[in-house]
From TrEMBL:
InterPro entries: DUF34/NIF3 (IPR002678), DUF34/NIF3_bac (IPR017221), DUF34/NIF3_sf (IPR036069), N-reg_PII/ATP_PRibTrfase_C (IPR015867). PANTHER family: GTP CYCLOHYDROLASE 1 TYPE 2 HOMOLOG (PTHR13799:SF14), NGG1 INTERACTING FACTOR 3 (PTHR13799). It comes from Chitinophaga flava. The lineage of its organism: Bacteria, Pseudomonadati, Bacteroidota, Chitinophagia, Chitinophagales. This is GTP cyclohydrolase 1 type 2 homolog. GO terms for cellular component: cytoplasm. Belongs to the GTP cyclohydrolase I type 2/NIF3 family. It comes from the Bacteria.
Amino acid sequence: MKIKEIMQVLEAYAPLPYQESYDNAGLIFGDASWEVTNVLLTLDATEEVIDEAIARGCNLVVAHHPIVFGGLKKINGRSYVERVAIKAIKHDIAVYAAHTNLDNVRNGVCAQMADMLGLEQRRVLQPKSGLLKKLYTFVPQADVEKVREALFTAGAGHIGNYSECSFNAAGEGTFKGAAGTHPYVGTPGERHFEAEIKLEVIFPVYLESRILQALLASHPYEEVAYDVVTLDNAYQEVGSGLVGELPEPMDELEFLQWVKGQFRTGCVRYTPLRGRPVKKVALCGGAGSFLLKRAIAAGADAYISADFKYHEFFDADNQIVIADIGHFESEQFTVELFYHILTEKFRNFAPLKSTIKTNPVNYL
């Protein structure tokens, strides 16, 4: 197995175009054409983790956090990032990161958190826009089902929980082939009228190449007429945070104590209690203060995330209970998610989970 095969599986689950603009997800060190000896899964690709990969015979480390966020102007070992780079390159260790792209998919990091709480009726808290396109094409009536099926197979036609979505409008197309053409219908040099179906399907941007290949391969015309339009629609399956409901309401303090245990955290920082049961819960892995207003607007009783600053706690304003459980604690189950993704695809392959606790924060 080559590293690129691992990458393909991870990126089918969490496409790179879904990452935030500041992020650096993807293959950071190494060559995608290398044969894989084994894979080590971790939250952070620290120097200790690289040592562990060497000791356990792994030449690929899959991490949640990219070890390199910005450009490195010098690599001389003066920082932990530079030391990781030197050691990984010296020992032919590839490092791959799936970060905000894995955060932003509905079944990603936030879903792991929601699973820990048994949340039901989940939806993305802040869906992203600009990630959808629409294809318009014109197909002879007798061939439209073949083309539609090819587009669906390529991944088009998904809207929320519905698949195989398309719109079809009957009309009449005209064309005249020049000398040397071989039209599917009609005669070169003569204007032809053909009963056609205008077929419309929606698709995520990262599938555009695959969708167009499917269109051109299945369409009977020598020259295929089509339009691709970028949509501003919010993509309900992709975005930041999740909101859902507990099976049963819980007392606020009981809820916070339960959350502390579920996420194995040494400390939960929280805002004043409101004296109301907790039923609807919003959450976001990692630094999630930017979603507080969204959580309030969604009617959440509690918001679980991390890295809130002192003054940001005031923004709860008795409208919601903030529970800051710690950055590492909110994302620690990402290793389990990586393991599930890879073993689900490669049934006879067993990636290794790092034994290094990379959390730089300690509690007394």
